[in-house]
Design a protein that fits this description.
Distance between the termini: 37 Å
Radius of gyration: 31 Å
Helix content: 40-55%
CATH superfamily of the largest domain: Histidine kinase-like ATPase, C-terminal domain
Order of helices and strands: HHHEEHHEEEHHEHHEEHEEHHEE
Structural class: alpha+beta
Number of helices: 12
Number of strands: 12
CATH topology of the largest domain: Heat Shock Protein 90
CATH architecture of the largest domain: 2-Layer Sandwich
CATH class of the largest domain: Alpha Beta
Shape: elongated
Mean pLDDT: 81
Low-confidence stretches: 1-31
Length: about 375
Amino acid sequence: MLQGHYVCHFLAIFSNQGRSELDRLPGRTDLNMSRDACISILAASPVPMLLIGRDDRVIAANSGARALLGSGAESRHYVTFLRQPAVLDAIEAVLAGRLDRAEADYLASQAMRETTFRVTAAKVVLETGPAALITFVDTTDLQEAGQIRRDFVANVSHELKTPLTAVLGFIETLRGAARDDPAARDRFLGIMEKEASRMNRLVRDLLSLSRVESQQRLRPGTPADAAAILRAVMTTLRPLVEEAGAKVTLTGAEAAADVPGDTDQLSQVFANLIENAVKYGRKGVSVEVQLLRSEHEPAIRGPAVIVHVSDDGPGIDTVHIPRLTERFYRVDDHRSRELGGTGLGLAIVKHIVNRHRGRLRIDSVPGEGSRFTVILPVR
């Protein structure tokens, strides 16, 4: 975005806006920029740019502008290919002398993707007279980041609103009709505890996700034993596995499997994947956790430790797989909430694996189970 600004500023020095500055330069009498010099500057800029003369026709278009707007813009009236009203109004205001600078958004489609450009029309003075320099700065990423932020706030608000509404409703009931009803009071307090726990898990996962995202560019350098981590996770999850009537087996973790990693974060990854397999599988689901070592893993172009978490549960429809690691995305929203899911677990897993420069793969066939694979580089 700054590149276009600097070019505009450079050209403005040669316009009437820069006259007072150039008047002070010794021996300087020519304040107008030559057409050829201006075209050379446009050609050197990576930002799409147009130069429009006072006759409303395009004097020059650089390669970026031709790629965006099509070839053959030179000598054409700008209205014939820039047909968005806000952009036309901005250019007209500058060419008519009402403004020295005007901005508007230009919407386009590139490679099957909607893009947004911030268009700036700035007044310049050529040796042939006044003209307008038009720059197109791609702001699509900024627009998408803003939309992601708005969606995130909306999702968090929605996730918190439901349990908060329930808790407030039960508090009101306990102060009124259920004040002297011990059975109702105990039942309502149990539900309130469940909803408060759900909010606590959500806040905990949000904080965890925030920490992981803030550290994503900092690759862990200390050694971590993936085999020991898996054995510890299996011990921690034993009560959950027994309560669910599931069967979880671990193979390949007898010997050490060192990787550069954060032990706590890798524990979170493995615990999340195994817990998901137990929770969302059928009653008595069988889960196999397998640790493998590869001398050359193509996905990371080097030696790796590979952990598979496979189950024989109901599986996941392929339409859901690309979105499973999105924040708050759930295959079965109602069931996930009932089981205490926050919709953030796999998003956290993805960010932790990315921080370790690893890969996360998800394979599933409806009715045949799922397999989640974590690939961690050894060095």
